[in-house]
## 1
Amino acid sequence: MEKSEKLKDQCAVVTGANSGIGKGVAFALSRAGAKVVVNYVVGETEASKVVQEIKAEGGEAMIAHADVSNEQQVQAMFTKAVKEYGTVDILVNNAGLQRDATIAEMTLEQWNKVIEVNLTGQFLCTREAVREFQRRGPVPERSSALGKIICMSSVHDIIPWATHANYAASKGGVLLFMKTAAQELAPQKIRVNGISPGAIKTPINTDAWSTKEAEESLLKLIPYKRVGVVEDIGKAATWLSSDDSDYVNGITIYVDGGMTCYPEFADGG
Ligand code: NAD
């Protein structure tokens, strides 16, 4: 397990950190020295387990309940984080979900739920983080930036995805929300960037990799010929959170083994 002090004394809020990528990011940021606020909406036991495990390896963490699409709950989560750790330096907008259906069969409820959590949730958390960065002011000995925000998107912010129109629309929205926030907030020294994972082994997509046949079929879409793991995303999130990426703003890192390189055309199309 690699450890560093790149995020020493900084507080990171990671949404949806009781599962999958969020959990992996929480561990990675902790191993770089950050105190981690492990957000969850359901699954308190799993969230507490993440906190216990972080503490067991010498880190600092706390759980914080909030539905990221609920304004009051998001505000209460940030109040709790600031009360406990003094401020927030890093936000990882990770929480997300799918409600898949064809366009003809998709209910308005399925559409709204995905947009509310995946897109509106990122706005609500970003707004509270920015307000806290502005309230706290610069602390140059901790970070060159006033604050750092990472928006978890998906390769489906640029690859259309039949039967997932709500999800693809939410992630396409995240891409331009992230870029607009980066443009608007850069003069205040707030850095906003995105991570777009390809196929990462987590509970959201178990069907796509849990059998040999499913994994072989998935690998046809991945030039690098391996399915990603949460540690791949944790490393990118740590870099984007640290001063190592201080001149990086408004970009998306596609952590996807080349999925966005049109593998269907590898033999000439
Ligand atoms: P996951 O289902 O394991 O984790 C999603 C997390 O979000 C869970 O902890 C869940 O409880 C939480 N969540 C859902 N609704 C919430 C709400 N209203 N408030 C707070 N938390 C909420 O899936 P994952 O693969 O770890 O997904 C994490 C992020 O990565 C998502 O934004 C997803 O779209 C994105 N992503 C994942 C993959 C992949 O291959 N796994 C690929 C591209 C993008």
## 2
Amino acid sequence: MKSVSELLRVGPGPVDLSAIDPRGTPGLPGRKSDPKAWSRTALDELGPHLGDLQQRLYAEAKKTGSRRRVLLVLQAMDCGGKDGTITRVVGELNPLGLRIVGFGPPTAEELSHHFLWRIRNALPPDGYVGIFNRSHYEDVLVVRVHGLVPARTWRARYDQINRFEQGLIEDGVTLVKVMLHISYEEQGQRLLERLDDPTKYWKYNPADVNERERWAQYQQAYADALTRCSTPVAPWYVVPADRKWYRNWAVAHLLKEALEGLDLAYPEPDFDVAGERRRLLASIPHK
Ligand code: ADP
């Protein structure tokens, strides 16, 4: 049976997003009468395992000086569900070993540096799981669609990103790059929901509707970024995301498979366990 990573990985070669069904559920065990409830329970059950894997990663770095860490890069069209994924999936992890960073429009200071400067500054420390809520890929997505830099500048960035990511991997980072793939219709529904519910007004940004008008340009920019930057060492995964319960289940599995691939073991004690037990017992007064 194929792993979720194998099923959702894209490339090498041209990526055609229109061929990937945003309502699909690849890898979800079949014949469930209620796949929604099933996948939610499965995710609840996966939580402690994810937490244990994360703790091993953390312990390894603390005790052995290992530089290994995991970085989940989340990209999506507006309303694609990045925030919901972080709450539901990443919420299963221990905040002590987590670094979550969101990337908005660059500040004046960030703009005065190379586009990867702010990304380097946001990398997870050794032993951590890092989450990028948007990432360096915005510099070949929104930047391209809005023509914020000349075409030759953003075109050169694909190779720069590949070299940068290769360096990260050599430095102990396991990259999990995920595009949450929603349909145009679903985005429309989710925007409408924000207008239907006063507790969601704060999420509504009129500018999102302007961006929606550029849907096709964004899809093209995504397809090109995935085609150019899905490499054997740092592949892209496209997660069908119209169904939130599948999206959460799939991202949790991508994270699980990445962590399991590290073959993490708790570090051996660097002290004499039996001797320490004797010493400690001797210090505890008998009742
Ligand atoms: P989100 O939509 O991720 O929940 P925001 O509403 O704060 O968060 O949106 C962040 C905005 O910042 C997005 O519109 C995104 O396109 C923009 N952005 C991110 N990185 C860049 C960049 N490098 N250049 C220009 N705009 C960017």
